[in-house]
Amino acid sequence: MSAYIVAARRTAVMPRGGAFERLSLADLAVPVIRACLQDAGIDGGEVDEIIVSNALSAGGNPARVAALAAGLPERVAGLTIDRQCAGGLDAVLLARAMVASGMADVVVAGGVESYSRRPLRLTTDPDGGPAVAYDRPAFTPWADRDPDLHVAAASLADSLGIERAEQDAWAIHSHAKALAAACHAEIVEVLGQGRDGFARALTPQIALRAKALAGSVTHANTAVAADAAAFVVVVSAQRARQMGHGLRIVSGATMGGRPEDPGLAPVAAIRRALNQAGLQSGDIGVAEIMEAYAVQAIACVRGAGLDPACVTLGGGALARGHPIGASGAILAVRLFHQMQQGYGLAAIAAAGGIGTALVVER
Questions:
Q1: For residues 213 and 346, is the Cβ–Cβ distance under 8 A?
Q2: Which of 97, 308, 327, 359 gets the most CB atoms within 10 Å of its CB?
Q3: Between the CA of residue 162 and those of 59, 265, 266, 296, what are the distances in Å?
């Protein structure tokens, strides 16, 4: 049984500490959920489940909070998932599985993240000493295979011979595409923000002055932390036929790879998703590849054999920002609004050596 995306919306993406700095997860998610249902012509009472990706909150099932705040029926329990950066796409794949299996007819799926409002993290001392602050959890059980993500990106660049100039050029092009793109149809205005807040006229001279984070990886060729929400509505084939439109979810895959090389993990996921669909990389007309780092995007495009001319047509995360739990869902929203025909692909890497890919057809 097939599943279809029949509506897709997102907020603008705002850098941490920017226009959305005071908003809660529900503040960000609710307008998008309501807009998606309105676009689909589906009453909230028809929703069977909502799946929400979130990586930085303190737990408490944000999906349930968002469902109640959006006015969905109390019977909609809400499922929150955390697969770090890949979670937003995984939420869409879970929605597809629920619908295709007959467990649900209408599922809202996506992600929301507030980097600005993320809680402080403390590790307690079993010996009674003071708690120690930390910025991120461990992504592997082995410290020597759990590098800082900037360091992992720099190592990837060194291993593949991707120089800083090439990374900077990719970032410059991403910003230029984002500045030229019209994203009004996909963005729900929140606090009057109808455009992504970070895209700028990045030049080689500006990029050259950017501070290095590790090796050839710099502030210019790395996505900034951000706040945003993005959701889609996934329905059964029968419901999609009644509505007369939809983006068919053809296939999808989540794959684990070497934990110390998270940037390469999407390549295996892309290959599996294409194989499931009986497609080749040349069959993809539009691809949304996550740009947490320019080198990671370049490596994935090359590794999967994609045509760079079809990748991130309206600019990627380098020009928008990276709201971790929402980033994968943003890729799906962008595909929904860009694709006119044929096949599309979204793919994203996650800490710990995880990659997720989604193939859709208009």
A1: no
A2: 327
A3: 38, 17, 18, 10
Asked if residue 244 has pLDDT above 90, the reply is no
Task: Tell me how far apart the alpha carbons of residues 321 and 224 are, in angstroms, rounded to a whole number.
Answer: 5
Which tokens is 326 given?
């929402």
| Among 36, 85, 183, 300, the one annotated catalytic | 85
Catalytic residue among 36, 175, 310, 322: 322
Task: Enumerate domains of the chain plus CATH numbers.
Answer: 3-116+222-361 (3.40.47.10)
Quote the pLDDT of residue 134: 86
CA-to-CA distance for 33 and 15, rounded, in angstroms?
21
Cβ atoms 139, 81 nearer than 8 A:
no
Task: Assess whether 36 carries a catalytic annotation.
Answer: no
Its pTM stands at 0.96
Q: Which residue reads 């295979």 in tokens?
A: 145
d(CA 43, CA 343): 29
> How far apart (Å, rounded) are the C-alpha atoms in residues 27 and 316?
24
**198: helix, strand or coil:** coil
Could you give the C-alpha distances from 279 to 18, 229, 296, 360, 361, in angstroms and in order? 41, 31, 23, 11, 11
Pairwise CA distance, residues 55 & 53, whole Å: 7
Q: Is pLDDT above 80 for 1?
A: no
Token digits of residue 251: 């296939």
| Residue 85 is a catalytic residue | yes
Query: pLDDT tens across 299-335, in order?
Result: 999 999 999 999 999 999 999 999 999 999 999 999 9
Q: Are residues 237 and 3 in contact, defined by beta-carbon separation less than 8 angstroms? A: yes
Instruction: Give, for 317, the enclosing helix (H) or strand (E).
Output: helix 317-320
User: What pLDDT does 335 receive?
Assistant: 97
Q: Characterize the bridge pairing of strands 284-289 and 343-350.
A: parallel
Mean pLDDT, residues 115-144: 90
At residue 242, φ and ψ (nearest 5 deg) are -65, -35
The token pair that represents 322 in the structure block: 């990276």
Please state, in angstroms and rounded to a whole number, the distance separating the CA atoms of residues 279 and 335: 18
